[in-house]
From TrEMBL:
SUPFAM superfamilies: Heme-dependent peroxidases. The keyword Secreted applies. One of its GO terms (biological process) is response to oxidative stress. Substrate binds at P159. The lineage of its organism: Eukaryota, Viridiplantae, Streptophyta, Embryophyta, Tracheophyta. Heme b binds at H190. This is Peroxidase. It is an enzyme of class 1 (oxidoreductase). It comes from Acer yangbiense. Residues 28-324 form the Plant heme peroxidase family profile domain. The active site is at H69. It catalyses: 2 a phenolic donor + H2O2 = 2 a phenolic radical donor + 2 H2O.
Amino acid sequence: MSSPFHHLLATLLYAALLLQASSSSYAQLSPTFYDQTCPNASSIIRGVLQQAFLSDIRIGASLIRLHFHDCFVNGCDGSILLNNTATIESEKEAAPNNNSARGFDVVDNMKAALESACPGIVSCADILAIAAEQSVNMVPLGRRDSLTASRALANITIPGPTDSLDLLKSKFVNVGLNNDTDLVALSGGHTFGRAQCRTFDNRLFNFNSTNNPDRTLNTTYLATLQQLCPQGGNRSVLANLDLTTPDKFDNNYFSNLQSNNGLLQSDQILFSTTGDATVELVNNFSSNQTAFFESFVVSMIRMGNLSPLTGSDGEIRSSCSRVNGASIIGSSNEADLISSI
Ligand code: HEM
Ligand SMILES: *[C@@H]1O[C@H](CO)[C@@H](O)[C@H](O)[C@H]1NC(C)=O
Ligand SMILES: *[C@@H]1O[C@H](CO)[C@@H](O)[C@H](O)[C@H]1NC(C)=O
Ligand SMILES: *[C@@H]1O[C@H](CO)[C@@H](O)[C@H](O)[C@H]1NC(C)=O
Ligand SMILES: *[C@@H]1O[C@H](CO)[C@@H](O)[C@H](O)[C@H]1NC(C)=O
Ligand SMILES: *[C@@H]1O[C@H](CO)[C@@H](O)[C@H](O)[C@H]1NC(C)=O
Ligand SMILES: *[C@@H]1O[C@H](CO)[C@@H](O)[C@H](O)[C@H]1NC(C)=O
Ligand SMILES: *[C@@H]1O[C@H](CO)[C@@H](O)[C@H](O)[C@H]1NC(C)=O
Ligand SMILES: *[C@@H]1O[C@H](CO)[C@@H](O)[C@H](O)[C@H]1NC(C)=O
Ligand SMILES: *[C@@H]1O[C@H](CO)[C@@H](O)[C@H](O)[C@H]1NC(C)=O
Ligand SMILES: *[C@@H]1O[C@H](CO)[C@@H](O)[C@H](O)[C@H]1NC(C)=O
């Protein structure tokens, strides 16, 4: 697990500590929440993550994205992990997630390992937060798990790759991330991971009914992408979100934008919207990786603090994909149905 997160650690621990010390806005979340009840929680999660990483270099990226998509729908309450049932229309099948969000099996493995070490203690919402921020030891914990999910909300609150800059900003503002720095720093999450052709091929041939490609796409990169994602081709083919250092957590995402090498329209728009405050932020993060890392941690913690369930709200699920005590009837999983009889 050395690569994606390794570089964040040294620089960021300091920032996270500062932030913890100086802020009183963390509700009831605390970085030491499990110190007495499940002291090995973080190392158990790290162990599963390291194991998964051996066969899937992308898994860290996929888990950060799960946390993001969890937090943007009624807050960070593990709702994205719930399966379909008679009463729950899962967020897994919402438009931004279906055939796209991944890593659920790894989360289930983390939960299984934690249930065996300390049953009923560590929430699925916190597993997502810990896995996403494994490099930042002080991530505040204490989130509990939702009893419901909302596919309808997931459809509309999660930002999309063809959203305008105004819409991207308003989706962040609507969840309480009301500062351009949050949008630009968190978009830096696209410094690793993959995207399918369907999420950017609108830019390649007939952009916005112009009969031309997106003018803000570097012509060299355009040629590469046109070859990877030809018209009428397989739209599930994957491209690296960061063409220079695809699996490394660094600030190259921002220098890519400066040379018109952002993959998604929603990436490039942060730099190509002349006069917008986002342009200066991109320049800043591109020229100073430390400034990016510090802002990324601050914004990840702000995002992780969005309307968590705490105290006695919600529950601690024993299986991340199912509400405790829920009837198995209506589950999408026939094997569960059979094994429960
Ligand atoms: C600003 C608005 C955002 C938009 C429009 C957006 C959109 C997307 C899209 C379309 C993909 C590709 C999905 C696919 O092809 O299946 C993607 C992947 C990804 N996103 Fe975002 N995203 C945004 C913000 C974020 C944030 C805030 C984070 C985390 C801090 C993030 C982390 C990731 C990661 C790591 C991947 C790769 C996942 C993988 O390889 O499995 N994104 N995003
Ligand atoms: C935590 O892990 C250490 C070493 O991995 C082990 O010796 C210890 O027994 C574990 N403690 C608990 C409470 O599981
Ligand atoms: C999710 O994707 C699967 C497989 O492509 C498809 O069968 C299903 O209808 C999709 N779900 C929704 C709600 O669109
Ligand atoms: C969510 O979006 C998908 C795809 O656009 C649509 O088929 C589905 O009806 C929507 N579901 C809800 C509950 O809004
Ligand atoms: C965002 O918030 C930080 C910290 O509160 C502040 O220093 C910064 O000026 C804000 N940035 C923007 C673009 O609003
Ligand atoms: C698409 O075209 C419309 C009408 O010409 C224009 O107002 C809009 O800004 C364009 N969108 C993008 C992303 O270029
Ligand atoms: C499309 O590409 C995806 C990802 O590479 C692959 O898994 C899938 O099998 C391909 N589908 C077809 C019909 O070739
Ligand atoms: C296109 O990208 C290359 C590097 O891949 C860079 O050298 C060049 O300056 C870029 N061109 C523009 C117009 O941004
Ligand atoms: C730009 O970076 C400097 C440090 O290099 C920082 O002090 C300043 O607040 C940053 N500006 C913005 C808008 O983030
Ligand atoms: C880079 O950013 C950090 C953190 O904001 C700041 O302390 C440092 O002075 C900046 N370096 C330069 C060269 O601007
Ligand atoms: C949830 O769905 C996934 C995929 O269909 C399945 O692997 C998992 O076992 C299900 N979980 C439960 C508790 O039914």
